[in-house]
Design goal:
195 residues, 3 strands, 8% strand
Length: 195
């Protein structure tokens, strides 16, 4: 009762070093782990804090309590599931594109939030970035749509893919990287009024 809060960094470091698993409950259909940045900021942040103290990454689990049968999934499995169900699902992204500028921003946001799981929990498979590149950037018709609707978000999406490769989260083939760099430069020129 009469205890006042004071910093206890050593105690916190010691507690984090003993963590073997991190956990988050998912209790809504409305917001998934790639819809917003909060999940990777908090659960991913705890995961990274534990990894730094324990010198190994803890297991990371999420529970799906939306039905009577609760499902526990690893973070990797959950990222794969959401990538297939939303980001790479034509029904989802075409629905987003109907919203024009804002829809492209939402697609880019999903990709950035997925990237957040690479940065904090190393939870994203290579194929995710490869398929994002193939679907949204290397497909010329799709790239033209994104470029026309929202060149700012299109540039951010390409930049995020390049950052994923640069930080070692994605082992992209050289010809893909060359094309991404070329597209990024073209989007920069478009935004600066040069192209």
């Amino acid at each position: 009762r009469a205890v006042e809060g004071r910093e206890a960094r050593h105690a916190m470091d010691k507690a984090l070093a003993r963590v073997e698993a991190a956990y988050q409950n998912i209790d809504t259909f409305e917001i998934g782990i790639t819809d917003v940045d909060h999940y990777f900021e908090y659960l991913g942040g705890v995961t990274k804090a534990v990894e730094m103290r324990a010198e190994k990454r803890p297991a990371v689990y999420l529970s799906d309590t939306l039905t009577r049968e609760v499902k526990i999934r690893s973070i990797e499995e959950t990222v794969r599931l959401e990538t297939r169900a939303k980001t790479l699902n034509p029904k989802w992204y075409e629905g987003m594109l109907k919203h024009g500028f804002r829809g492209v921003a939402e697609i880019e946001s999903h990709i950035s939030n997925t990237f957040g799981w690479s940065a904090t929990a190393d939870a994203v498979d290579d194929w995710v970035y490869t398929e994002v590149a193939n679907t949204f950037v290397l497909d010329e018709k799709m790239l033209d749509r994104l470029r026309h609707l929202n060149p700012h978000s299109a540039r951010s999406l390409v930049g995020r893919l390049l950052e994923a490769q640069g930080r070692g989260f994605w082992a992209a083939e050289q010809h893909v990287l060359d094309r991404l760099r070329e597209i990024f430069a073209g989007l920069e020129d478009q935004l600066e009024g040069i192209a």
